[in-house]
Every structure is written in C-alpha cells, then in structure tokens.
Specification:
Layout (H helix, E strand, L loop, with lengths): L1 H8 L1 H49 L2 E3 L12 H8 L6 E5 L9 H10 L3 E6 L4 E7 L5 H11 L6 H13 L2 H15 L13 H34 L4 H14 L6 H29 L13 H17 L2 E3 L9 H16 L6 E5 L12 H12 L3 E6 L6 E10 L1 H6 L3 H4 L3 H5 L5 H14 L2 E7 L23 H33 L9 H4 L6 H24 L9 H11 L14 H18 L19 E6 L7 E6 L1 H9 L10 E3 L8 E3 L14 H14 L1
Parallel strand pairs: 1-2, 2-3, 5-6, 6-7
Antiparallel strand pairs: 3-4, 7-8, 8-9, 10-11, 12-13
C-alpha cells in the first residue's frame, strides 16, 4: 500500500496528474458552456423584442404594429384605446403578427419588463390571441373563451377585442357563465356562428343568381301565363263555361268586352315587368354587402410606416433586425456579417449590401411580396446595392440587385436552395440558421462574376391595391351577365317541363271527364266506322256536357228548359237513356247511341244560338248540315239522293262524286246478325228519319218510346 500511495504522491504520479486536471477543467468548462448556451440564446432572442414592446407600452398602453396595415392599420389604435378604457382596470394591448408572439410567454415577459400591474391582451391579425391579468381582478380567460366560441373566424381583431372587453366588464361570475354557455353551444364543433362576410366568389354567385332571376322569372311569366290560360280553356268543362258566357253575352248585347280584352292583353307584360323590378330591388337590398373583410381601409401613413422604419434603420446600419420579431442573429454572427459586407463593398465590382431581417406577411403593405418590399425600401433608401430580405419568421432569403455589376436574374433565381429556403436543420432551428445562410450568401456574392455594365433586377409586379382589395364587386357585374343568359335557358327549360306536366294532367282529366269535340272539327275527326265503345264514350261525354250547360243556363235564369228547342232535344236524348246520362254506359245498341249523340249535339247548338234543324245525312256524327246536295249513294248504278250535308261532304261530292258514298256512316250489324257493318239508315226508325231533320227525329224518338 505504501508503495502505491508513494507512487501516487511521487514524481511519476505528479507528471500524469497535471494534464489530467487540465483536461477535466476544460471538459467542465465545455459542459457548462453547452448547458448555458441554449437558455442564454433564448433569453437573447426575446430580450430585444420584450424590451421594445415594454418601451412602446410605457409610452402608450396600446401598441399596434405597423406590419399588418391591410388587416389592422395603425390608425385603429385610438379605437383599441377607447375600448380598453371600458374594462375597469389598467389594460395594456399589444397587436402583433401571430408568428411573432412565441406562444404564451410574451405577455409575462413584457409585464416583468414593464413592471406595471394590469390586464395584458395580445391580439394578432384575426382575434384575441392571449390575455392575462397581473395584480388585478379580471376574467381574462373566460373573456377569451367567449370570444373564441361566440364570434365567427372572420369577425376581425377590432370586433373580437370589443367582445372581449364586453365580457370582462360583466364581472367574473357572468363572464364564467357566458364562457361556459358558449363552450357548451359551440365546443363540439357541430355548430358554428354564421360568417359575417362573404368573399368574391360568393358575390359572383349572388350576381349569377340575380341575373338568372331577372331574366328567368319575367320570361317564364310571359311564356306560362298565356299557355296556362289556353290550357285552362281546354280543360274538361271549360268549353261549357265559354258557351255559357257567350250565351250570356248575346242575352245582353249592350255589354261588350273589347276593353276588357285589351286590358287583359297588357296584364301579362305588366306582371313580368313588376317581377323584374321587384327582383332587382330585392336583390339590391338583400345582397347589400360591400366588403369581404372586417379590416378598415388603411391610410397612406399606415402603408408607409414600416417601409419608412426599415429604410431609416438601413440608412444607419446595413443590417436591420426587426425589433418586434424574435432575434435570429447573435452578436458574433452580426459582427461577422458586418465585416463581410464591408469586404464585399470594397471588392472589385462590389458595392453596398443591405440586409433587412423583417417578416413578410400577407397582411403587410407589400402583401407578402419580397420583391415589392425590396423595391420600396430601395426607393426610400435611395442607394443602389444588393438588397437582401430575410424573413425571421418564415426563414426565407431573397436577394435583389439594384445598380451593381452583378447578374440580377442569376442572383435572384439561381441561388442554392440551402440559402434561399434552408435545409432540414434550418426548418427545425428557431432561428432558421439565418446567420449561417447569410454568411454563405456573402460567399456567393464574393464569388459572383461581375458584369460589364451595372444591372438592375427590374420593376416588381404590382401588388393588390390595399385600399380596394376587400371591396366586393358590384352586384350587377361579373357573373351577372352570364346569369342573364342562363336565366333564359332556365326559363325555357322550366316552361318545357311545366308544359309537359300540364299536358299530362289534361290528358288524365280528359280520361276521367272527356271534353266534347268542337263542332267545326267534327267532320274532320269523326270516324266512318266507329266502334261501339267509341259511340258509348262520345254519347256519355255529350250528355254530361249538355246537362252541365243546362244547369248553368238554369242558374242564370235563362228560358232553355222544358218547351224550348234545346229542351225538347235534351228531353228526347234523355228518353233514350231512361233520364240518366250515366245510364248510357249500359246501352248496347249502336243506333241508339248515334241518336243520343246527334240529339245532344243539336241541343248544345241550340243553347249556343244555332237553331239549324238539319244534320249531315252522310255521317250524322259530322254535325249540322249547311245545305242539301244530290249524292251518289252507291258505287253501283247511278242512283242519287238529295240529302243534307256538311261542308266537307258537300265539297267531296263536288270534287269526287264517285267517292262520296264511302263517307256514309256504317254501324255494326244490328242484333249481332253478323260480323259485318251496315249503313246506319238500315237500323230503321228513329235513326232512318234523321235526313228529314232534328225535329222529325225528336218526334220519332218520343213515338218509339211511347209505344214501348
């Protein structure tokens, strides 16, 4: 043991102990540096931002960033200040981009730096992002919860803060109840508050709908009203009403209605015009939105504030770091970047380099366009050089050359992606490794080939007008014109569908309650060899129509009943069916059915004022005769008869006398005596009396019924 201990304390042991101790000391220092680097760097990152915000709040308890002029112009600060006074406690408001706030620790750091108790509220470009109360009683969490659930996403920062203040002013108990109610109503996500604003696509849809209605509805009225009027006239029973109206008009000759006809002719166009005006006015009042966002239009001072700030900073220092954003360059990186900028400026073909570490956001004055931002800053600074825009939030780097002997396109578009966008390590790092990437950029600039003449990147594309970008297009514009055309097509389509449905309905009604054919159409459509079912259905239709017309005449007090010409003919027809029109369904004798049809039609003609006594003897189904004419009644021989005929049969007898006998009405053989057909006159009385006139037919019917 002594030997070992002595060795440990002897000269040889001493020689090995000193280097070991030095190595251990170095390791300890390295470990301490490694453990302290990250917290120190984090503290450095936020210290500048926190100090800047605390200084701003010390000067004014409401601070609105100049980086969001398209959404929250700095000119809205007085409105935020006015709302903040309603909370009842000291209130400090910070409006910053959402990516600049670094989570929930910013308000606590600002409070510690400012050293003042109160309600601290952090607002981003859309809503109240965070709120905390320090040393005062204010339901900050409940108010933020109510804002989150009660308002739609497009309510905007100002309205969100207004709702926040409203809930805070209610006190802790009411605020808690309100937050709980909002959480229960909207917390599951199944129901959300309705949007407050519409977008350009919604306005185009409104314009398209307005155009469709503005042409479709009036055109549909112009097409449908006359069509429906004609359709109603063709419905079962409409002819009876028209006949009754015509009879009533004749009964009162002093009351004509041409003025009523002219007035009716103007009703449909007037109705269509009224519909068009109503649609236009209603659409204007209903679709009255004028903006697509809650953001107020910015002023010129709002749009120039950040450009002026950055330009002023670059005029003093070629590297400007946005104090509102987290710091991404430490002192060592900043010193090295300054040195490399000076070296490039003094090199052959080199020149000034300006680095702006400023966020590029869709809500800023340049709408997130780095090229437009760089051009604006260059104009303000007034010095040519390489302008570098490095986004501390997104981590992107863009380079623009103005007036140096460098290839501007190559410099802007051919930079390595590791510099422009970064790699995986840069994505994971809080500072996006901007210090290393800017150092690599300076290496690229040093090695970049020089051009013979100074080059400039060129004018940027114009960005959206920040004043009018949220203005909705007029209602009567954009898709309104295609909507007018589609309205015409839609009206034509609906008219076709409606016409098809009405035609189907009319056919169905006619099957249930057939309408008698017009007298003038009888010679053209009446068959020469009708079936028994056709005769039975036609007889029923004529009798029911006649009964309805007689009922209408009776209600109007007309003398068309018993003892009159129409009444005698009606009575004779009823005698053949035992006084019941529906009993015609049981009649099987074709001659009886023809007689009923002829008498019913003659009675209806008499009701309408047509008192002609003769019926077409060629085919009694043709209706009244217009004259008598000599006809060939057979294909054999040359025998002729003087018979009453309708106009069509008369014309046929004149033009084709040898063919007229083919038009004579034939009926199934009487009593089922055979399958053939025989002329109607062979059935005997009373049908054979028909050529002598309707009056003789009536008498014959009465005599035959009396005998039976």
């Amino acid at each position: 043991m002594r030997t070992v201990m002595a060795y440990g304390k002897g000269g040889t042991g001493t020689r090995h102990s000193f280097p070991a101790r030095v190595l251990l000391a170095l390791c300890a220092v390295a470990a301490l540096f490694a453990t302290a680097t990250t917290p120190a760097r984090a503290a450095t990152d936020t210290a500048t931002q926190t100090a800047h915000l605390a200084d701003r709040l010390r000067a004014n308890p409401v601070y609105v960033t100049d980086q969001l002029p398209r959404e929250i112009p700095r000119s809205t600060a007085p409105k935020f200040a006015e709302l903040a006074k309603r909370t009842g406690v000291p209130t400090y408001v910070i409006v910053l981009p959402s990516q600049s706030t670094h989570g929930t620790g910013l308000l606590a750091a600002v409070h510690d730096r400012l050293g003042e108790d109160g309600l601290y509220v952090l607002i981003d470009e859309s809503t109240v992002a965070e709120a905390s109360a320090y040393g005062v009683r204010a339901p900050a969490d409940d108010a933020a919860t109510a804002v989150l659930y009660e308002l739609p996403y497009d309510a905007g920062p100002l309205l969100s803060f207004q709702r926040f203040v409203e809930v805070v002013a209610q006190g802790s108990e009411k605020a808690a109840a309100r937050a709980e109610a909002a959480r229960e109503k909207y917390g599951d996500g199944d129901e959300e508050p309705a949007d407050m604003y519409i977008g350009p696509s919604d306005r185009r849809n409104q314009s398209f709908l307005t155009g469709m209605l503005l042409t479709g509805v009036p055109l549909l009225i112009l097409l449908l009203v006359p069509y429906v009027r004609r359709w109603r006239r063709r419905l079962p029973g409409a002819a009876r009403k028209q006949t009754t109206t015509a009879a009533g008009t004749r009964a009162a000759p002093g009351k004509s209605s041409p003025s009523r006809t002219r007035a009716t002719r103007w009703i449909t166009p007037a109705l269509a015009l009224t519909a068009a005006v109503t649609i236009a006015v209603t659409a204007t009042l209903t679709f009255d939105q004028t903006r697509s966002s809650a953001s107020p239009p910015p002023r010129a001072v709002d749009l120039n504030a950040r450009i002026d700030r950055v330009a002023a900073g670059l005029a003093e220092d070629p590297v400007y770091a946005d104090p509102e954003s987290p710091r991404v360059l430490d002192d060592r990186q900043l010193t090295r970047l300054h040195a490399r900028i000076r070296h490039f400026e003094q090199s052959a073909g080199g020149g000034p380099v300006f680095v702006a570490l400023v966020p590029q956001l869709a809500e800023d004055e340049s709408a997130g366009d780095e090229e437009a931002f760089a051009a604006a800053v260059h104009d303000k600074v007034g010095t040519d050089g390489v302008y570098v825009v490095a986004d501390p939030l997104g981590g992107y780097i863009d380079v623009f050359n103005y007036g140096l002997r460098l290839d501007s396109l190559d410099l802007n578009f051919d930079l390595p992606d590791s510099i422009t966008y970064g790699d995986d390590r840069a994505d994971e790092a809080d500072d996006h490794l901007l210090g290393e990437r800017l150092d690599s950029l300076m290496t690229v600039l040093d090695k970049a080939p020089r051009t013979e003449e100074p080059d400039t990147f060129g004018a940027p594309y114009p960005v959206d007008d920040p004043i009018a970008e949220d203005d909705l297009p007029p209602l009567f514009a954009t898709d309104f014109w295609p909507g007018l055309f589609m309205g015409v097509l839609a009206a034509a389509l609906l008219f076709g569908l409606t016409a098809g449905v009405l035609r189907f309905v009319r056919r169905a009604l006619l099957r249930r309650n057939p309408e008698p054919l017009p007298t003038e159409a009888l010679p053209l459509v009446s068959p020469t060899e009708p079936s028994e079912s056709y005769l039975r259905q036609t007889a029923r239709t004529e009798l029911l129509t006649l009964a309805a017309e007689f009922g209408a005449q009776a209600r109007e007090g007309s003398r068309a009943g018993e003892g009159s010409l129409p009444g005698d003919r009606f009575d004779a027809a009823l005698l053949l069916v035992d006084g019941n029109p529906e009993a015609v369904r049981r009649v099987t004798d074709p001659a009886t059915l023809v007689t009923v049809i002829v008498l019913a039609r003659a009675a209806r003609q008499a009701l309408a004022g047509d008192k002609r006594n003769l019926c077409c003897a060629v085919n009694p189904l043709h209706g009244p005769a217009v004259s008598r004419h000599h006809l060939r009644v057979s294909a054999e021989g040359n025998s002729r008869r003087l018979l009453p005929v309708c106009a069509l049969c008369r014309d046929t007898a004149v033009a084709e006398p040898r063919e007229v006998h083919q038009r004579f009405l034939t009926l199934p053989a009487p009593g089922g005596q055979g399958p053939g057909r025989v002329p109607y006159e062979e059935y005997g009385s009373p049908l054979s009396i028909l050529p002598a006139g309707i009056a003789r037919l009536v008498d014959s019917v009465r005599e035959s019924v009396h005998v039976h």
